TrEMBL record:
Molecular function GO terms recorded: methyltransferase activity
Keywords assigned: Methyltransferase, Transferase
InterPro entries reported in the protein's UniProt record: SAM-dependent_MTases_sf (IPR029063)
Protein name in UniProt: Phage DNA methylase
Domain of life: Bacteria
Swiss-Prot/TrEMBL GO biological process terms: methylation
Gene3D superfamilies, alphabetized: Vaccinia Virus protein VP39 (3.40.50.150)
Length: 242
């Protein structure tokens, strides 16, 4: 097992959430706003992660928590398995370049462990070929953000109604096939073709604690998980959720 490195940044006092494949904490920040204390786990160092952070393999760490019984400390698990094997933005590029043969689909083993945990959970993935149930789809326009960034969520051991999708106000700004298009949204991926500056990305995503482009382009807007976390906690208070 990868030796975990635990970095404590906050004292837990609220329901505890496990944020697996955490990246720099876009999802974690939203759950914090919703009312959770958050522990993030990522295999890479994440010095900008704003909460308690464990550097470890996410699957190995979750398996160890289940085996030891420590999983009972947690109320909810959020997961964002790496999506290179199925993301719509990368599948075509990988195919055209002859890449992608080594990408491992981590969704099935993640789901298996989540089911074994006995806890309510979320599996997040972008649009593409990832084999998850699309129990919930969220878009930046639903939250007044400067990105569209559609994200799909499989919900385990709980459910919530799909909110209405809000019509888009225009195009995503940038170059398409040699032509530049203006629009109210920025493209929160890549590093060329009229892509936004770091400050533009931060403002569009609602993220101000990291200025690393890779972390910003990989992040979930915190507004999404704030909505999910608030919906779950409302059900807990009403005696509906697990």
């Amino acid at each position: 097992m990868t030796q975990p490195t635990l970095i404590r940044r906050e004292h837990a006092a609220r329901p505890l959430l496990l944020d697996l494949y955490s990246c720099a904490g876009g999802a974690g920040r939203g759950f914090d706003w919703a009312g959770f204390d958050v522990v993030g786990v990522d295999i890479r160092p994440r010095p900008n992660y704003p909460f308690t952070f464990v550097q470890a393999d996410a699957l190995e760490y979750l398996s160890a928590l289940i085996a030891s019984g420590e999983i009972e400390r947690y109320a909810f698990i959020h997961t964002s398995p790496p999506c290179q094997a199925g993301c719509a933005l990368t599948v075509g590029t990988n195919r055209s370049k002859g890449w992608g043969g080594t990408h491992v689909d981590l969704v099935p083993p993640t789901r298996d462990l989540l089911e074994a945990s006995g806890l309510p959970y979320v599996i997040e993935q972008p649009n593409g070929k990832a084999e998850i149930r699309k129990d919930l789809t969220l878009c930046g326009e639903q939250f007044g953000l400067g990105v569209l960034r559609h994200r799909n969520f499989e919900l385990g051991r709980w459910s919530v109604a799909q909110p209405a999708h809000v019509p888009h106000r225009g195009r995503v700004r940038g170059w398409r096939h040699g032509e530049f298009f203006d629009g109210p949204y920025v493209a929160a991926y890549g590093n060329g073709g009229g892509k936004p500056t770091i400050p533009e990305l931060q403002a569009a995503m609602g993220i101000d604690w990291t200025d690393v482009r890779e972390e910003l382009t990989e992040a979930i807007p915190p507004a999404y998980t704030q909505w999910i976390g608030a919906a779950f906690l409302a059900q807990v208070r009403a005696g509906v959720a697990a």
